């Protein structure tokens, strides 16, 4: 990163302080975090790479990881009190809000959130989140949250030009990656404290749902195509109590449990 000492100062007093693992290049920060989590790495460890050779998105998608232009990081979390795997969706949703908060605080750009965890500027994606779990029975042992943010990319490969953007392309300005990362981790600190607070889950979930309705144009009233269940189209009709997207089709109200959601062509 550009200024490691500056980042360390910014994270003083957070759960991430003194737990940064930086790589010039790595296959995937999520893969590294999962490997080290299995070996006992600490809650709050952050894995950061200048470049990834095998960056991953949701499903079978890859993540374009241009050296030095983007932020590629993964956070290792060991939820306490313990949560069930079915509750892990809340971590992804909270992370999307943390990215949006951090980006707006540094750049002034307001991100849209395409459920569950793509962040857009206009119609183009600039950030994605990949959450992976290790569970034992009904308890999550650890969660790894991978976050990719296109920061200073000036262009993208031809196959991504209509789909992707960066903070630089949207604003005309370059931004230090260390400043974005510091803002992101501070925002994540607040989300984690709220989400994992004892006896506060229901309130935390309700707050996340409310904030998503304010942040995202995709939650209600958006005509979409859903890849799951053979593919179907409909209009988004809010999130259910578990944080899953609901889509009103011509035939019925469906809950999206997996699969990509895109604007209907």
How is this structure best described in words?
With 265 residues, this protein is α+β, with helices and mostly antiparallel strands. The chain contains 6 helices and 12 strands. The strands form 2 sheets. Strands 1-2-3-7-6-5-4 form a 7-stranded mixed sheet, sandwiched between helices. Strands 11-10-9-8-12 form a 5-stranded antiparallel sheet, with no helix packed on it. Helix 1 (4-10) runs parallel beside helix 5, helix 3 packs across helix 5 and helix 3 packs across helix 6. The chain starts with a helix and ends with a strand.
Number of helices: 6
Low-pLDDT windows of residues: none
Instruction: Sketch the topology as an H/E string, one letter per element.
Output: HEHEEHEEEEHHHEEEEE
- The span between the termini is 40 Å
Q: What percent strand?
A: 25-35%
The biggest beta sheet reads: 7 strands, mixed
Radius of gyration over all CA atoms, rounded: 18 Å
Please summarize what this structure is.
The chain is α+β, with helices and mostly antiparallel strands and about 260 residues long. Helix content is about 30%, strand content about 30%.
